[in-house]
Amino acid sequence: MSVRRTIGTSAVALVVSAVAVGAARSDVADAVMKGDRAALRTLLQQRADVNAPQADGATALHWAVYRDDLEAAALLIQAGANVTAANREGATPLSLASINGDAAMIDTLLKAGADPNVPVLSHGETALMLAARTGSVEAVRLLLDHGADVDARDTLRGTTALMWAAAQEHPAAVQVLVEYGADVGARSNAATLGRSAYLAPTVLQRAASLGTEGRPPGRGGAGRDRGAAGGGRAVRGGDSNAAAANQDFDNQDFFAPRQNTNGGGLTPLVFA
Fold first, then answer.
1. Which of 23-27, 85-89, 137-141, 251-255 has the lowest mean pLDDT?
2. pLDDT beyond 70 at 29
3. CA spacing 20 to 30 A to 51: which of 6, 69, 192, 194?
4. Which fold does the domain 126-186 belong to in CATH?
5. What CATH number does domain 1-114 carry, 1.25.40.20, 3.90.1720.10, 1.10.510.10, 1.25.40.340?
6. C-alpha span between 126 and 198 (Å, rounded)
7. CB atoms within 10 A of CB 46
């Protein structure tokens, strides 16, 4: 299995949980899950129900997408597979193709009527967010060309696709999103402030490496006039004086007064 599918354990489990749950009666889905192309063709000739779900709601098309099986997906769509079907967790075939970063599969689904702006999963994540997190430039561009909302936000943290791409260190995906008008000044919900789970690893590493002299966060000499973005650039550029001055990074609360402008939260630059 490709390493890309390790990104977001819960997202991958959306389909594979069917194995643990035990399959409901869905011969077509079972055949595709096993990669049995011959059985699939036989079932289609017998006009078996291509939309019959397994116990967790996963259909044959979910499995075809998960397995990157473009031929099986095409056969299923031709036989009437529902491209907008969601499993019990809300995952659609398009969301799984986006997790995989499979542009060819995404194109097939979009042409068959999949809507790139339908929220998936329990917190309103979109296909564009998932593709941005994977870092597939082709997938991101394809979704945007088909009308995906570049600044759509999830309902949990208020994050955008740009923040997802930045957090996973995908500069090429970030560039494409910016080219399509992504708001680089967008801020996540204020609730994300000071929570390490929502900061990119590079930010936390810089914070840990700069140390502290016992000063409260946000009160570090010349650093008091620098935003989180300015400090980040200085460290990246190897400016030792700026790095020493920006000891505010020793505490994540440093980000709060600088990013919490007009009730907002973290910007894409902090996620990066």
1. 251-255
2. yes
3. 6
4. 1.25.40
5. 1.25.40.20
6. 18
7. 9
